[in-house]
Amino acid sequence: MLLNHAFGLFTHPDEEWAAIRKEHVTPRRVYVAYVLVLAAIGPVCAYISTAYFGWSVGNERIIKLTEISALQLSVLTYLAILVGVFALGYAINWMAKTYGAREERNRSHAIALAAYSCTPLFLAGFALLYPVPWFNALVFLAAAVYGAYLMYDGLPIVMGIPKEQAIMYAGALLTVALVILVATRVGSVLLWNMGFGPEFIEN
Fold first, then answer.
1. Could you tell me which residues are beta bridge partners of residue 91?
2. Residue-wise over 179-195: b if at least 16 C-beta within 10 A, else e?
3. Which SS3 state, helix, strand or coil, does residue 96 take?
4. pLDDT tens, residue by residue, 55-102
5. Are 169 and 99 in contact (CB under 8 A)?
6. Count of alpha carbons within 13 Å of 73, Cβ hemisphere only?
7. Do 15 and 8 form a contact (C-beta atoms < 8 A)?
8. How far apart are CA 51 and CA 64, in angstroms?
9. pTM score, whole prediction
């Protein structure tokens, strides 16, 4: 089962990446059996915490969103995650020839590499059930660092390139990931201006 890879990437990443390369699973299966499931963790936890628990910053009052607003923002976040993973996988495959890897028509290795490298960020979504901003920031920062390490560690194994090439390749991909992140933030601002902004409950 593909979800088993989520735990293997934390305990023995090299062996897990080798197993992922041998599987050569289609992008559709990776999305249906892995990304669609794990990517929902953050949005679902965010919905629960913002609609029912509320957020507090310092000693200020608890801030909550209406259920409709929390649901809208969670669904939009979920869709942004799915698009972001696909865009990263596309970039991995598009840059493959530049760094000595083989470009694939169906992008199976590239999508798998993007999806599994995002595993720490997917699982970090559980932290949103404890709605304290500084705690969430630390958890997601740690997850991003480990995700970047997984990307660097998996590139030479999954894409079949020398480890020296993986350093430049990973650096380019991290730049792409930052561009994707900025694009989603800009998209969020545009959607908020179109009426999808947060609606707070008055306490």
1. none
2. ebeeebeeebeeeeeee
3. coil
4. 876 666 788 888 998 999 899 999 999 999 999 999 999 999 888 888
5. yes
6. 24
7. yes
8. 6
9. 0.91
